[in-house]
Design goal:
The chain is mostly helical and about 180 residues long. It has eleven helices and no strands. The chain has one domain (about 5-180): Orthogonal Bundle (Hypothetical protein af1432). About 40% of the residues are buried. The structure holds fe (ii) ion (FE2) (2 copies). Pfam families: HD (PF01966).
Length: about 180
């Protein structure tokens, strides 16, 4: 197995059981998000972005021996995208980097979206900057990865179901390897 893929897989084996302020584990959340992407016909890059969008939380957990500080924003979207940028193209990393901005955007632009948020998502919204200003909305809409970030964020919120079973994390390893910059 490629070294990067091996490291990512190990990260989810070691820390993916953590529920991180939701009702389901990080690995369940990741695989549900990827399953929604796949079902929507998303590209391999966007499907892997969906799978790894919260890898920043796992990197923080790994750094702090599995403990979490919920009082401060861990900036997991930037952390995860930065970590992955050494190995994956922008089709994977940009939607990850923008998925928190997409949440703020959707809460601002879509009247019905806030009510769909999980308790964990509501709790973190303020720390992440709350609603967007008009200027922020306009700037975000101009981003070349705007629509994939919004799509990812919609799957993200849908990927918190306690009762469904989806394809396991390992079933994406081959697709992950396929999307790497250099194989
Ligand atoms: Fe996230
Ligand atoms: Fe998420």
């Amino acid at each position: 197995m490629n070294e990067t893929i091996h490291h990512i897989n190990q990260l989810y084996i070691q820390f993916g059981n953590n529920k991180y302020d939701e009702l389901i584990s990080q690995t369940e959340h990741a695989t549900q998000c990827a399953a929604l992407a796949k079902a929507s016909g998303a590209s391999p890059e966007l499907t892997i972005a969906a799978l790894l969008h919260d890898i920043g939380h796992l990197l923080v957990l790994a750094e702090n021996n599995g403990t979490i500080d919920f009082d401060t924003d861990d900036e997991h979207e930037a952390l995860g995208a930065r970590y992955l940028a050494a190995h994956f193209p922008s089709g994977v990393t940009a939607p990850i980097a923008l998925h928190v901005a997409a949440k703020r955007f959707l809460c601002t632009a879509d009247d019905t979206y806030f009510d769909q948020l999980s308790i964990g998502s509501v709790r973190s919204l303020e720390k992440q900057g709350g609603l967007m200003t008009h200027h922020e909305v306009m700037r975000f809409e101009r981003s070349p990865h705007f629509s994939s970030a919004v799509e990812l964020r919609r799957w993200d919120e849908g990927a918190k179901d306690e009762h469904i079973i989806v394809d396991p994390f390992e079933s994406y390893l081959e697709m992950m390897e396929y999307t790497l910059n250099s194989k």
